[in-house]
What we know:
Elements: E1 7-13, H1 16-26, E2 34-40, E3 59-65, H2 76-91, E4 97-100, E5 104-107, E6 110-122, E7 125-135, H3 152-156, H4 162-181, H5 185-194, E8 202-207, E9 210-219, E10 225-229, E11 234-237, E12 243-244
Parallel strand pairs: 1-2
Antiparallel strand pairs: 2-3, 3-7, 4-5, 5-6, 6-7, 8-9, 8-12, 9-10, 10-11
Helix pairs in contact: 2-4, 2-5
The protein binds biotin.
Biotin is lined by residues 15-17, 40, 43-46, 49, 51, 60-62, 104, 114-116, 132-134.
Amino acid sequence: MIIGSNIIQHEKVSSTNSVAATLCSDGNLPEGTVITAGWQEKGKGQQGNKWESEAGMNLLFSIILYPSAIKADEQFYILKVIALGVYDVLTALTSDVKIKWPNDIYVKDDKIAGILIENSVMGSSIKNSIAGIGINVNQERFLSDAPNPVSLRMITGKVFDTGVFLKDVCKAIDKRYAMLRSGDRARLTTDYKDALYRYCRWHSFKDHEGEFSGMIEDVTDSGLLVVRKKVGTIKEYAFKEIEYQQPATSNNEQLVIDN
Length: 259
Ligand code: BTN
């Protein structure tokens, strides 16, 4: 097992991704090293957002990878590996788990986990990759203006041991990483697509032209989302070029505060 063979535990950090980046630049940590924390002062989300997590309640960790099996322009495979590992472990605990392209993990229409991958690229190779993962485990109330957070506890009514759960997640990601290292890219691609939220069904989306009814048909090797519009055209979208229009109802009660 590579992922989680070395676990560095912190009570409080600024961000596990930042700690991992510093450790990477300081020296040679074994591949698969996990940096985990009970709380992050400056937890980083996608697009410069903050990642909310109540102290000690959830999983917040970063994995250091040296993915020599792939080139820089194939880096979307790292996301497939991580997203599928998280998907696998959650699917063993609850139903209706989906991967919302590109990097959110959903249960029904609510977000249970987020992934932030930061790659250090040198020429056509990836020097190292830091895969930051936040999974909402035991938190019951979310205070940020994130639209639809949910946790395992809210879904199952059970409290989870985050230490035990971390090991399960590492095992699941390790299995998926082994697929990448052994060259089983086809399996990762098929499973990623099969796990996609709103895959191959008509749904409401929004792009720069406005709202439309469309169907997700594919994800390209470089990670673009391929959507067929009901009017007949097929388009490829990069992250943030398309919005999913949410169903009107979400299961969660939410408190909205200003940051
Ligand atoms: C997202 O916006 O969905 C991505 C969230 C990623 C959060 C995790 S928590 C552990 C790691 N450290 C960070 O600062 N961010 C990631």
